[in-house]
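User: Sequence recovery, please. Input:
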């Protein structure tokens, strides 16, 4: 198994931020501060479902290590 670089891990987080427009907007949608989001290197496991809901980015994109595409519901 290949080890993912930090860039590969944080790309989904950057995508979520782009969809929402800013850390402040994502934080407001999740009920947390932008400072908390600034500490994330990737979407935390306990926040995946919430981020998926507000951004419409599939969990398999946000955290493919936890939600592989081959396990998605069809």
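Assistant: Recovered sequence (74 residues):
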């Amino acid at each position: 198994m290949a080890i993912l670089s930090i860039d590969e891990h944080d790309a989904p987080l950057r995508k979520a931020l782009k969809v929402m427009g800013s850390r402040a907007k994502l934080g407001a949608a999740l009920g947390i501060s932008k400072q908390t989001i600034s500490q994330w290197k990737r979407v935390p496991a306990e926040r995946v479902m919430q981020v998926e809901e507000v951004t419409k980015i599939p969990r398999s994109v946000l955290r493919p290590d936890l939600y592989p595409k081959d396990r998605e519901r069809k």
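The chain has one domain: 6-63.
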